[in-house]
Write the structure tokens for this entry.
Amino acid sequence: MDSVQDESQPGVEIGEIDRRKTPDRRRAVRRKVFKIGRAFWPNADSSECLVYNLSETGAQLEARSLVPNVFDLLIEGDPWRRSCAVVWRRANRVGVRFQEERRLAPRPKGLRTQFDEYRRFSEICQKMAERAISSDRELLLEMAEAWPAVIRQLRRKTLLLQPRS
């Protein structure tokens, strides 16, 4: 139980509060937000999530898939990557506590580098298709054709996200 101080008379306690009966038991003030985040699992997989509220000590997330008990969280527009531990779960929502000091997230690759990498993937699929058996060749050629489509889609998306002048 926590005790509450009378601010008008320092050192005087008003009484004790049972934190289980208090609807909001957070130690830090939360801010309602609606941001996109990405949760990075310990096995190097990741999943997109929505961040509904955020404080210095934790957050409430809505995940698209099951969330492991510990993971790293990167929030859109925030340069910090935070280690998280799940505190509660309800359906596809989870409450997390930040475990350690936040650290700067690695800078994302530039789009030009990403496009070059996708072109290289397409070329690799085409080369593999030349040497593959017929059943695999068809799939590899489909994959080779899909990478340029990914580039076009990404270009369109980045054009839509750019501020208009």
Notes: Residues 1-6 have pLDDT under 50 and may be disordered. The longest helix spans residues 134-161.
